[in-house]
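TOKENISED FOLD:
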Amino acid sequence: MSELNHLRKKPPDDGGLLLDTKDRRLKMECEECGVLFYIGPEETSQQRYERRATLRRSINAAKTKMRRLRQSSDAREARLQADRANKESQREVETEDARTSRLQGQALRQDRLRQTETEDAWTSRLQGQALRQDRLRQTETKDARTTRLQEQAQRQQCMRDNIITSETAENRLKRLQNEARRKKASRAMSPARSQDSSDSDVVMEDVDSSSSDESSDESMNDNIQMTSDTSSHSKLPGMLTDKLEVDQKVESALKHLILRTLNGDAQGVKSSSSSSLALVLDSSRAEACISLPGGTVAP
């Protein structure tokens, strides 16, 4: 032990665990497993108990690591499957309160570790994790990678299924209410579209009602005047500013139609369905549709 006297006052720069002169068996196991240690000063029984427990945990972890490194790929895969099955069985028999307390305990321990961790230790820990993940990715075969991704997808799907099945009646009611509220808001955002559709329905009803009268040119004129009046007063309120201008345009359109009919150009007038004359009034403000009854116009 004379060669270790210089380590009595403080631990070495590369770290290590405290080991007193009486722990010869532990010293031998540390040397076999490669666990760093140093010889410290005298201590109480409680300190010795805690120190030996920590040292024992480190030795067991080192032994487990060495045993796993010597394991074959088949044995390792079987061990991992057994571990997963064991964890799944524990999750199934675990109650909701026990699971909540376990997760809360894990979160508290992680927060405590993060708070006591220095910035250098945090950086080195993240670097170590990145190196281990890169090493695993490099040594991982294609089949192992496919299996890992499939298991990850299955775990995520199980988590989603658990979230859906564990939904209570109150949460489901809240979710349905939120969906109904969103739908109502989306319908309220488009009032112009519904108004336009209702106006088009009214215009189509006027076209159907006007197509039933096919008596004569006089009834055609009356229907045109009635359609222009009703469309100007009921369908487009406030958009026809000058009724006299509307009447003049209607009269000029009728004169043009009669002249075309008298000249023998009645092919554009004869049709089985109703024809429409579009009158654009104040092109930046409104459009009025005048429907003509279908049928043959006599020359």
User: Anything to note?
Assistant: The two ends are 132 Å apart (CA to CA).
